[in-house]
Amino acid sequence: MLHIDEKRLLKVFQDKGKEILDINEVQLPKEKIMRVSLWLKGKNLLDIEEKKREKVKVVNKKPFPERKIANYLKEIGKNEIEIKELKNILDKEEINAALGAIKRKGIAKVEKGKIIFDNLDYYDEEEEILKRLEGKYLDELSEEEKKYLNILKKRGYLDIDEEKEIKLKLTEKGKELIKEPIVIEEEINQLNREIIISGKWRKAKIREYDIKAPTKEIYPAKLHPLTRIIREVKEILLSMGFKEVKSPLVETEFWNFDVLFEPQDHPAREMHDTFFLKYPCKGEVPKDLLERVKEVHLKYWRIFDKSVSERLILRTHTTAATIRYLASLEEDEKVKPHKVFCIDRVFRNEAIDYKHLPEFYQCDGIIMADNVNFNNLIGVLREFLKRLGFEKVRFRPAYFPFTEPSLEAEIYLENKGWLEILGAGIFRPELLEPLGIKKPVLAWGIGFSRLAMLKYGLTDIRDLHKNDLNWLRRV
Ligand SMILES: N[C@@H](Cc1ccccc1)C(=O)O
């Protein structure tokens, strides 16, 4: 069944006896032609071919300044003029253009401050070509015309317009269809009271619905892909019984490193890995805990300086949030089990490239409970990754200053192989001791950007933040 507008369009082909039409040949509003063409394309009766073409447009219709000089001389009956007199007949900027063109084309001699013409009715190819170029398409120009095109563009006589050429082409099926005469009878789109009461509906042709008719795509508002992943991970962890915690973006080295048993001379603490605050550069550190942490550091690392602990930095990992949570527990809470996570931004002083940004998202989680062990950690991570959509997972031993034993989880991706996705382990007793925590604590941290890249098939992490509308509409 064809819609009346589809018939109208097909009839244009029939009446003109053509198989290909430029949309300018169809006497209907462009919007409508495009809509109807899409319908016909959906029915495999028509193909739409779009081509961008560049077209020459003459933007200055005045004669060239060199011609103005010649015309002027003809009028006053002379064949030469002093250059300094030119300002009487030309605009300032025209003078240089005229002199340049006269020399370039050899129209007249320029000598001793004078312009001398042999022939005031000189022939100028440039002028002839300018007349010819108007409205021509760039891809139809001859080599010579192209050469003049650039000159004339520079002289400000021409511009290039982009034009969209849309051709409608009947398919084989379409050609077959227009062999039969197309009869256009008025259809009723909508029944109304008058049509029903008068009984017109008995004879009228009522338009059928075509629920498969292609329509313009619409792009409803939606959340940014990164926000969606963050929410998805939150949902998963909440459903696994974890509670969300937060901690400051601006953090002391104490919470970011010391409490996590990272020695104060650890290379990760240096400027090239960590962002330091200039003002204020120092933060507050809890006295009692500092003393206990210091004791452990001196015992194992033989180095500890309070002024290092107090330095303010931008948090480099969200492990600072989970450790802060553990430290905040009151005595009566320490005997209970705890499962918390933190998803938030972290910062590292990295050069920006396809897989590094100085600011990115991490998610850390901990489980504190009696008798939990390395196997439980692997089990929980396996479940977490499975809920994220990664079925094939393997674990390898790893090293982190704050966990022992430690592991790295890798996921398997078709065509990519094994990819490292998270780090985990059991918090060291040296770290738990100053916090007064006696139960084992399983901990893990996962980078989000990596996850988002995998999920959305990106090869460059920067694409996640480019806000390219075409991409955002599709994902
Ligand atoms: N914080 C570590 C990840 C990690 C968290 C918790 C335990 C072990 C490792 C990182 O940023 O790489």
UniProtKB/TrEMBL annotation:
Enzyme class: ligase
SUBUNIT field: Tetramer of two alpha and two beta subunits.
NCBIfam families, alphabetized: pheS (TIGR00468), PRK04172.1 (NF003210)
Keyword field: Aminoacyl-tRNA synthetase, ATP-binding, Coiled coil, Cytoplasm, Ligase, Magnesium, Metal-binding, Nucleotide-binding, Protein biosynthesis
Compartment(s) where it occurs, according to its Swiss-Prot or TrEMBL record: Cytoplasm
InterPro entries in the record: aa-tRNA-synth_II (IPR006195), aa-tRNA-synth_II/BPL/LPL (IPR045864), Phe-tRNA-synth_IIc_asu (IPR004529), Phe_tRNA_ligase_alpha_bac/arc (IPR022917), Phenylalanyl-tRNA_Synthase (IPR002319)
Catalytic activity line of the entry: tRNA(Phe) + L-phenylalanine + ATP = L-phenylalanyl-tRNA(Phe) + AMP + diphosphate + H(+)
Listed name of the protein: Phenylalanine--tRNA ligase alpha subunit
Comment on bound cofactor: Binds 2 magnesium ions per tetramer.
GO process annotations (BP): phenylalanyl-tRNA aminoacylation
Residue positions binding Mg(2+): E404
Residues reported to bind L-phenylalanine: T319, F402, F427
Cofactor or coenzyme needed: Mg(2+)
Gene of this entry: pheS
Enzyme Commission designation: 6.1.1.20
Pfam families (alphabetical): tRNA-synt_2d
GO cellular component, one term: cytoplasm
Family annotation (Gene3D superfamilies): Bira Bifunctional Protein, Domain 2
Coiled-coil region list: 69-96
Similarity field: Belongs to the class-II aminoacyl-tRNA synthetase family. Phe-tRNA synthetase alpha subunit type 2 subfamily.
Chain ranges passing through the membrane: none
Residue ranges annotated for the Aminoacyl-transfer RNA synthetases class-II family profile domain, each copy included: 227-475
GO molecular function, one term: phenylalanine-tRNA ligase activity
Top-rank taxon, per record: Archaea
